[in-house]
Amino acid sequence: MLPQAFFSGDTVETARALVGKYLVRRYGRITLAARITETEAYVGRMDKACHAYGYRKTERTKTLYAPPGTAYVYLIYGMHCCLNFVTEGEGEPAAVLVRGLAPRYNQDIIAENRFHCKCGEMTAYQKKNFLNGPGKVCAGMNIDRALNGLPYGSQELFVCGRLEEAGLPPCPDDDGPLDLKVGKRIGIDYAEEAVDFPWRFYL
DNA sequence: TTCAGGATGTACT
DNA sequence: GTACATCCTGAAC
Questions:
Q1: Fewest beta carbons within 10 Å, which of A133, A164, A186, A189?
Q2: pLDDT at A103 over 90
Q3: What is the distance in angstroms measured between the alpha-carbon CA of A131 and the sugar C1' of C12?
Q4: Closest CA to A168 of A82, A106, A116, A112
């Protein structure tokens, strides 16, 4: 498991560093794992796209002020959940949004959560649109608002640098250098000058 | 393969 | 009442 200190530094750097790491989700007797392929940084201090812009503090945003590594999960567009990890020091509202994943362990269960069918039964369209969006990430990994505020270090949800750290078989495809790309964030057209910040990282 | 449009509930003004 | 860090469907090409 990555140490909590991984999340305590600069938010943009943390977003960059999270790409290629592994998200591990445990519930009941089930363990799911997936590689993080896409992230975005949100910084309340000066970022109009962030829910806590200008240190706004409400019932929803209070989780952003929690210690680093805390899970921030909220509902968007009335029907989808988004998963973030809180960054920087406690009291400093910032987070990294997990926008995309590549399944690595128990793919059949992830497919079941997402499409109510097994991996082998997915259509080409479903394979292409498996976990390539924040709402899809939460659906596949069985993440909802019940996890909002979960402290980092819980066995229910954490991040590790290698699958072996979670007792899972490694994925040889993941060896080698990362082809990391940088771009503008998505779906924040209202955020004025912040729409152009190059705070999105993806493979 | 791309596009437009609708679903849907909560937070905030 | 308005906006929202989205996803899916169906139709056209």
A1: A189
A2: yes
A3: 27
A4: A106
